[in-house]
Structure formats: C-alpha cells, structure tokens
Amino acid sequence: MPEPSDLIDDIERLAEKLTQARASIDRRFIGQERVVELVLATMLSGGHGLLVGLPGLGKTMLVDTLSTVMGLKSSRIQFTPDLMPADILGSEVLETAPDGSRAFRFLEGPVFCQLLMADEINRASPRTQSALLQAMAEREVTVAGVHRPLGRPFHVLATQNPIEQEGTYPLPEAQLDRFLMQIDVDYPTRQTERDILLATTGAETAVAHPVFAADELIAAQALVRRMPVGETVVEMILDLVRACRPGEAEAAVAVADALAWGPGPRAAQALMLTVRARALLQGRLAPSVEDVLALARPVLTHRMALSFAARARGDTLAGVIAAVLGELTGREAAA
C-alpha cells in the first residue's frame, strides 16, 4: 500500500497537470467552464459522456480538442438515419490471394480507437445506436463470433440534439444508463459570446496542444479510484440515489407520483467516481457533500423517467431532482 504522503503528492501533481489541460482546452473552447469540468470528470472516471445541446454550440469542437489535449487516438462517426452497425464496428471481407486461395479479413470500424466521437447520436435508428452497447460496457466488440478488444483507454463522447427536433430517435434506456453523465450545453453568456467572436473570426485560430498521453490518462484514472471518500459523502450518495426510486421506503416525497422509474446502482457508482474527479479538478484531496449536490443532475437525469401524471402537470426531471436535494438537505439540517 502506498504511503498517504505519496498519495497526496500524486494527487497534487495530477491536479497541476489538469490545470494545464484546462488551459489548453480553453484556448479553443471558450467559456463553458462547467461543461469542460464535467467532461474531464467523465474521462478521469473512465466513463462515457453524452453532450446534449442545440447545433452550433461547440460540442463537436470540444470533443476534437479533448482528443488532442488528452493525447488519444480518436475517430468520429456522423450518425445518420441510414448508418448501419457495420459502419461502426467493422466487417469481414472475402479476399483472394495471388495463389487463388480465399480467406476472410476483418476490416476494423471507427470504434477501434481510444476516443470515439459519436456525433448527433440520436439521428441514427435504435438498431444502429445499440451497436455501441457492448463497446461502452465491456470495452470490446463481438463480430462474426470473435471478441475483439478496443483501445485502452476507451471513451465515447456522444453529442445529441434535443429530442423535440425532427428526425431524431430517443436513445434506448439501456444505452443511456451506460453514459456516466449527461452534460447539458447551453447558450453562452453575452461576454462569452463576445470573446468567441473575437477569437474565432480573426486571422489566426487558436490551437490546442497535447498535455496527457494515453498511459498517463490511465494512471490518472487509477489514482482517482484511490482517493479517499468520507463516510458522510458515501451516505449522501446512498440517500440521494435511493430517494429517487419511486416505491422505495426511502423515496423522497417529491418522487411519489412524479417518476415512472429511478436510478439503479450504476448511478451510485457513477457518483462515487465523479465526486472524486470533481474534487481533483478543483485542487482538493477528497470530495465533499457539495460535490454530490453539484453532480446530482448530470449523473441522474438520464437515469430517470417522468410518470404520465408528471408530464401532464408539466414537471421536469431537473425540478424533481432539485426538490429531492432540497428535501435531503432539509433532513440534514434538522438532524
């Protein structure tokens, strides 16, 4: 077991390197500090991220910048209604050798990389979307009965347009649960938009530079898992996840008839990892309850569904999560 002082030194060195990475990202992706923080927390936790926002808000550019800064081999798939699973995974082709013999050869698809950008993932049919299920969960794919490992590390950063836009398909619940976080990308503030105009319409364009390498990112992910988590934070994670499950004895009053279903154990696992990553990104040695409160919405939103009655009332998942957090913090204050 490493000494506590060695762990502290490792965390401080990694925090310094993450500061450099954020500075490099900010050269191209201006503003949106929370979005950058959540995406980096997702990668430090070894997970996948779903970026949700209207077209033109820089989601694709952010993923492209991340591949450079984190030193990862990247691929991009533009999801369209006619995209097929083989376009993602690859396929076998029959080749004829000079001697006339024939044999099948596997041609790798774009999923064989370290950072996969799934652009506008909800433009493709559910059949094609589901081609990523095994890759995201097991870091391997099975094609023609052969298990083929993917890159290490392997991350999917998918972009999605709001579901109310025409020509989109909702992602299956099983696939949504495999995304560590749903990260909402909103319109920039006026000052941020002004900075974007000045930085992107001039003669020179800012360029990101590599800060990490693939093996360094893997080491950082291992370090995140070694960070201590206090009992108070663990209990808060359990309280939050269980309070969002309708029908449970520990369910919050706010979810009584508002939710059709709530988050499973994978949500608690995601919170345990991401609160550590957030603390690290902010230069702290251990997570706090505030980290749990800050990450509740991006970790839980895509793992819950409103009931029919709640949709009829005009309720939102963000509102339900806020009500649950208010109820939990109220209990803590009363205790």
Automatic annotation (TrEMBL):
SUPFAM superfamilies documented for this protein: P-loop containing nucleoside triphosphate hydrolases
* InterPro entries in the cross-refs: AAA+_ATPase, ATPase_AAA-3, CbbQ/NirQ/NorQ/GpvN, ChlI/MoxR_AAA_lid, P-loop_NTPase
Instruction: Identify the Gene3D superfamilies for this entry.
Output: Magnesium chelatase subunit I, C-Terminal domain (1.10.8.80), P-loop containing nucleotide triphosphate hydrolases (3.40.50.300)
> Which GO molecular function entries does the Swiss-Prot or TrEMBL record give?
ATP binding; ATP hydrolysis activity
The coiled-coil segments of this chain are none
Highest taxon in the source lineage: Bacteria
A Pfam family? AAA_lid_2
Q: Where is the AAA+ ATPase domain?
A: 45-189
- Family in the record: Belongs to the MoxR family.
Q: In its UniProt entry, what is this protein called?
A: AAA family ATPase
Q: Which organism is it from?
A: Phaeovulum veldkampii DSM 11550
